[in-house]
Amino acid sequence: MESSPAIVRFSPAFSLPERDERSPMTIDRIAPSRRPQGYSVMRQRWAELLFLHWEADSHHLQSLLPPGLELDTYDGKAYIGLVPFTMTGVRPTISPPFPPLSNFHEVNVRTYVHREGRDPGVWFFSLDAANSVAVRLARAWYRLPYYFARMSLHTTPERSDYTSQRLWSPPLPAECDISYTPTGEVVPAQPDTLDHFLCERYFLYAYAREQLYRGQIHHSPYPLQSATLHHCRENLIAAAGITRPNTPPLIHFAREVRTQIFPLKRT
């Protein structure tokens, strides 16, 4: 596993960047944040979200996507993300939460996509979760590449320590050991900024049996903060067949959001 420098600081820039004609700024990135019509099927609370992003080879990432999806880039640059967090209150909309099944940690490896210039969303290369029942259900119902892992999150006012070790299924090994401290004031991402591009995603895509699916998630904008990264040792990205640069990542942190999950639809 690779290690970042001892301490890395990054404060998100919330100013409007210069536009680049190579970046698909014409994609509507605001409409997906609005609550869709109809009923949600699940409610979840996401907490202690750490967003780590590195630039990645766009040609390689595109080669890993299923038919019908195009890589989404910002100023011509593609990104690979590693996002550890914890989930509570996971439940069907019509049911109360059941703590043994409703509360667990998760970490995902992701990139960003769109479909024919619309519906910008997330493509997951892997999602490791510390709940074997949730892993099986998500694989079956949402057709997402979930894996079962042994995970822990220890949080104090001084720092948070997050670990994950995949137990099944391959590719193995696939694990991470991350330590960080949130810093700075809460500043939601502004449209057209890199912060908004990386964090404010409301569509997800899945692919199974030669069929592309799209799901939608609704929540309020992330309460983003900067963070100090003390160390990041991980090979989850490599397990997905992707090489990331050995450089400090872009870092964002959000304390929590409450989400509504809508059904998958065929595209």
State the share of residues found in helices, binned by percent.
Answer: 10-25%
CATH topology: Acetoacetate decarboxylase-like
Bulk shape: globular
CATH superfamily: Acetoacetate decarboxylase-like
Query: Structurally, how many domains make up the residues?
Result: 1
| Class per helix and strand makeup | mainly beta
Whole-Å distance between the termini?
37 Å
- Which residues form runs of ≥5 with pLDDT under 50? 2-24
> What would CATH call the architecture?
Beta Barrel
Rg over CA atoms, rounded to whole Å, is: 17 Å
Mean pLDDT: 91
Beta-strand percentage?
A: over 45%
What is the CATH class name?
Mainly Beta
Number of strands: 14
The number of helical runs is: 5
Largest sheet: 14 strands, mixed
Order of helices and strands: EEHEEHEEHEEEHEEEHEE
